[in-house]
Amino acid sequence: MIKEKMKEKKRIRKKVYLLLIVLIVSIFLSSSIYALGITPGRTTFEFEPGIEKEIVFSVVNTEHKDMNISIRIEGEWSDLIMLNQTSIGFNEDEYMKSLSYRIKFPSDISEEGIKARIIASEKASDNAGGTDIGVNIAIEHQIYILTNKSMLEEKNINVTKVFVEHYQKGGSAKFEIEVMNPSAQIMENVHSTMLIFDRNGLLRSQFNSTSINIEPDSSEIIDAYWDTYGFSEGDYGGNLSIYYDNKTEEQNLIIYLRADRIEIDFGKFEFEKKAPFSEPIIDIEEKLGPEMIVLIGAIILFIILDIIIFVRLRKKIKKSAKKNKK
């Protein structure tokens, strides 16, 4: 009986080990997905036959790691777009790099929509040929074209106010974003993304808002929540992107984080040049990285499960031993 219990324990332990291995592999395979960002996520153009434009966008190294990035174009208009670079490299002290592309419009289009995607992905470090890994829709820059017909009597959405009330230090700050729809059409699925940068230009946080519909010629408030744990008091730069009707409106913000309040102004934040190792980083996630935090959590969970299994099997063995004595 005791041997059977020990065999059962071994089987359970093997399953737990297998689960832990799968979890660890999943973490490291997915690391490249979370290591990158692209801003803006979409650029919308009014169609103009035969015209050429040059557009700047940025790739963000959100995990502050050494890596090589490949840049490529996909979609219907991929032959009409030329990148100034098809690859870039980051070291751990570099957080954002700007690139550009030239686009030449054709003489005519049949319909509006997404005509191309510029995708950034991390190159496999052990592959000299630079095979891409971890490609995900979250790290693409979309090129959206509007036709003259859809632009008729079009009016853009406006961000009229951004504010935070009832803030407590280290807690979750509720951003209330007042958005106005000046058009005669209802605007559906209006939502936003907020990027928070420190004074060195380091991307410290990214969060999304709720999604709402806004009636014609009216205003509504979109809610978004910023977890300020680990953030020290000071001034931060913000980039607010509002998405609606396949369009994007961006607004630069200056965010004043204080012990008992958060104040927000419209305007461009003046970043300082970062001196290497000039300031200790107190954010646990920035010290260890999200993969390491999840890995540590998985190991702790495994230890707890192992203890529970051991205690339960020990009780069963004792009960069996008592029965055998009787």
Contiguous helical run count: 4
> What count of domains describes the coordinates?
3
Q: Cα-atom Rg, whole angstroms? A: 26 Å
Structural class: alpha+beta
Q: Please state roughly what percent of the residues sit in beta strands, choosing from under 5%, 5-15%, 15-25%, 25-35%, 35-45% or over 45%.
A: 35-45%
Low-confidence stretches: 27-34, 127-138, 274-287
Give the H and E element order. HHEEEEEEEEEEEEEEEEEEEHH
Number of strands: 19
Largest sheet at a glance?
6 strands, mixed
> In one word, what is the shape?
extended
Query: Helical residue percent?
Result: 10-25%
Span of the ends, CA to CA: 15 Å
CATH class of the largest domain: Mainly Beta
Protein architecture, described:
22% of the residues lie in helices and 42% in strands. The chain is extended and about 90 Å long. Residues 27-34, 127-138 and 274-287 have low confidence and may be disordered. The chain has three domains: 2-30 and 292-325; 35-151, Immunoglobulin-like; 158-266, Sandwich (Immunoglobulin-like), CATH 2.60.40. The longest helix is centred in the C-terminal third of the chain and has 36 residues, at 290-325. The chain has four helices and 19 strands. The chain has 326 residues and is α+β, with helices and mostly antiparallel strands.
